[in-house]
Specification:
The complex is a heterodimer of chains A (204) and B (188). Chain A has helices at residues 34-44, 48-51, 71-80, 141-152; strands at 52-58, 61-66, 86-94, 103-111, 116-124, 130-132, 155-157, 187-189, 192-194. By secondary structure, chain A is α/β, with parallel strands linked by helices. In chain A, a hairpin with a 2-residue loop joins β1 (52-58) and β2. Classes of the chains: A alpha/beta (204), B alpha/beta (188).
Chain lengths: 204, 188
């Protein structure tokens, strides 16, 4: 219970290696309301099998992986027909090892009428980081898309004003990418200088 | 408050002698008006210090001026991000002299726990600070202690050529001082 296991380094900068997630799709039946959602979407959107790359049900949550070209259509149908009125915002994810699918944008949707939550995930390669904007579908995503652009560099086509929102306007780089450094400075104490967490030696 | 001992006893009652420096210091410290510069969590403690239990009104400081033109003291309460730094400098520049700055909390003093690309590591990179108040957040009583120390500092502030002399001395001491990592502190 007590005592460190492994290296004992809890800073997170010791080069944590994680296994990649599997690429498979979940099988029917999905469970709870997910089957209804998938069936309704398939009925309302004839291009379902071509647009939705994967359907993943993991830990009681449904994730639809959508191709970026079909994102706005799927979003419109989810909002109008399936009544997912609320989009909680866009999150960005950066998978540097997943070549040609490095940048993901994740949309969490909530249906207040049916009390349902699902997730949409869209991916884009680093060489062409464009994803269509869903501001026409859910207007509240305006600032969220600006934040995702600022932190990850995903360019949302059709956004009314895509500028940096958290960092200063002339900042270079996208801070939340995995290859962006922490940017800390060494801290002076009396008798010692402590480097920032990402440059400290690992505990061996 | 007489400069020559015993002179006041020889004067008729109702006459007090003082120096311009002492009078100016006394008057300035007793009517400090803070500018609202609460940025993050330390602002909550600053509000608590201004509220009923820990009362800043006893120092005449319950009026937090929204306009920097009317304020003398800027209490930087909270972390300053790189985006906020030019705004902070602009507000400081808009204050009229004499003006003082208290860096309230660890983030304003040195960047606090946020040693990264987004946060300015100490607000003294942007404005000159008179009092550094550590804490995360400092209790309202600690803020009041910092204000009282600032009051003492203001009370003893020199004017005119005396002030220039003091500035020169402080600069010379700073140039000759040992860097922090060369000091031994409690570890030695």
């Amino acid at each position: 219970m007590f005592g460190a296991s492994g290296t004992g380094d809890t800073s997170g900068y010791g080069g944590l290696v994680r296994s990649t997630t599997s690429k498979g799709s979940s099988e029917r039946p999905y469970g709870s309301y997910f089957d209804e959602v998938a069936d309704d979407l398939e009925r309302a959107y004839p291009d379902f099998s071509q647009a939705i790359e994967r359907v993943v049900v993991y830990r009681g949550e449904l994730t639809l992986h959508v191709k970026r070209e079909n994102l706005v259509d799927v979003a419109m149908i989810l909002r109008d027909t399936l009544l997912f009125e609320v989009c909680m915002g866009v999150s960005g994810v950066h998978y540097p090892t997943d070549l040609d699918r490095e940048l993901h944008a994740v949309y969490h949707l909530l249906s207040m009428t049916h009390n349902r939550r699902i997730r949409l995930e869209v991916s884009a390669p680093d060489s062409d980081p464009h994803i269509p904007s869903v501001v026409e579908v859910w207007a509240g995503n305006n600032w969220n898309e600006r934040e995702t652009f600022d932190m990850f560099g995903i360019i949302f086509d059709g956004h009314p004003g895509l500028t940096r929102i958290l960092m200063p306007d002339d900042w270079r780089g996208h801070p939340q990418r995995k290859d962006y450094p922490l940017g800390g400075i060494p801290v002076e104490y009396k008798g010692a200088t402590v480097p920032p967490p990402n440059e400290r030696r690992s505990y061996r | 408050m007489g400069l020559i001992v015993g002179l006041e006893e020889k004067l008729p009652s109702g006459v007090v002698l003082t120096s311009v420096e002492k009078l100016a210091g006394y008057v300035r410290k007793n009517s400090l008006w803070p500018a609202t510069f609460g940025l993050a969590c330390c602002a909550i403690e600053m509000m608590a210090a201004g509220a009923g239990r820990y009362d800043l009104a006893r120092f005449g400081m319950e009026v937090f001026r929204a306009s920097p033109r009317q304020a003398d003291l800027m209490i930087v309460a909270g972390r300053v991000s790189n985006k906020m730094a030019p705004v902070l400098r602009q507000i400081y520049d808009q204050m009229a002299a004499p003006k003082w700055v208290i860096a309230m909390g660890a983030c304003a003093s040195s960047g606090g726990m946020f040693n990264n690309y987004a946060i300015v590591q100490g607000v003294d990179h942007v404005v000159p600070v008179d009092i550094y108040l550590p804490g995360c957040p400092p209790r309202p009583e600690m803020l009041m202690d910092a204000i009282l120390k600032l009051h003492e500092h203001i009370n003893d502030e020199k004017l005119g050529s005396n002030r220039e002399e003091v500035i020169r001395e402080v600069e010379a001491a700073a140039m000759a001082a040992k860097p922090t990592f060369a000091l031994k502190g409690l570890l030695a």
